[in-house]
Design a protein that fits this description.
- The chain is α/β, with parallel strands linked by helices.
- The chain contains 12 helices and 10 strands.
């Protein structure tokens, strides 16, 4: 089956997408719940702001699809739960797929599924699990015409900065992005690198597969707008931001401001004006 119908719902005519990630509760971390304690309310707020997609888990996707009307954002279904985000790594690490992930995505009318490709220092078994997960999903995605979003995530050792800290070393990001492409990703959800002006190299190594850039932890409005505008100029096809939207005091206007950069090429200054108006 062709992927085109679902990709058309995910991306604009210009090939751009803003996906708001609200799947953080899937990972069993108290700190990830800020701003999404009431998921029904959080999802309603985001839907009203009008991003292209919302990234949700199987247990929360029903809140989105129960909203009436034809103009809802597309659903990106998170398919794997992992236990690698805490300040201390547990004895046993896993990244586990939900059962019959693609069938559940079809039933929930998803436009894409998302899965991790994790690279942690000295954790080859975890990386193996992720490669296997991507391979399993790719076969099933092809059967159902479901786009596969792979999230190549390079992380620092926990004893460097604590848990869930991105390693922005482009020499680590590039090969992992390319591995995701080689495994069959239809969309890449990748980290920003330490130097934004080098991000065109990530776009190049993705070899024509659209790259959506992760937002990471909370940052100031000025930093987020400046970084987003620079990433779009470097050739990114869009962004996947979560905590910088849902933990913002005004998530609706934050979404609108970021959409203006992604879809209309607004500058950081113009986007900030939308946010503060």
């Amino acid at each position: 089956m062709t992927l085109k119908p679902r990709l058309n719902r995910m991306f604009s005519e210009q090939g751009k997408c803003f996906d708001v990630a609200v799947d953080h509760g899937f990972f069993n971390e108290f700190g990830f719940l800020a701003g999404i304690e009431n998921m029904k309310q959080a999802i309603t707020t985001i839907v009203e702001a009008g991003p292209d997609c919302i990234q949700l888990s199987v247990g929360q996707a029903g809140h989105l699809q129960s909203i009436p009307g034809s103009q809802k954002p597309g659903l990106v279904l998170r398919t794997d739960a992992a236990n690698i985000y805490g300040s201390e790594l547990p004895r046993f690490l896993f990244s586990e797929l939900i059962d019959k992930a693609i069938e559940q995505a079809v039933r929930l009318d998803a436009v894409s599924v998302c899965v991790n490709l994790l690279l942690l220092p000295n954790q080859p078994e975890l990386h193996y699990q992720c490669v296997r997960n991507v391979s399993i999903l790719k076969t099933e995605c092809e059967k159902y015409g479901m786009p596969l979003m792979v999230e190549p995530l390079v992380m620092l050792a926990n004893d460097v900065k604590g848990g869930y800290m991105v390693d922005g070393d482009i020499h680590k990001i590039l090969p992992l992005v390319r591995q995701a492409v080689e495994l069959g990703a239809d969309v890449i959800k990748a980290d920003p690198c330490d130097h934004v002006d080098e991000y065109h190299r990530v776009i190049e190594v993705a070899s024509g597969i659209p790259v959506l850039v992760r937002g990471g932890g909370r940052a100031s409005d000025e930093e987020i707008m400046t970084r987003t505008a620079a990433l779009m100029k470097q050739g990114a096809s869009g962004i996947v931001y979560g905590r910088n939207v849902i933990q913002h005091p005004n998530p609706a206007d934050m979404t609108k401001a970021l959409m203006s950069i992604v879809h209309h090429g607004n500058s950081a200054e113009q986007a900030l004006a939308i946010l503060t108006s």
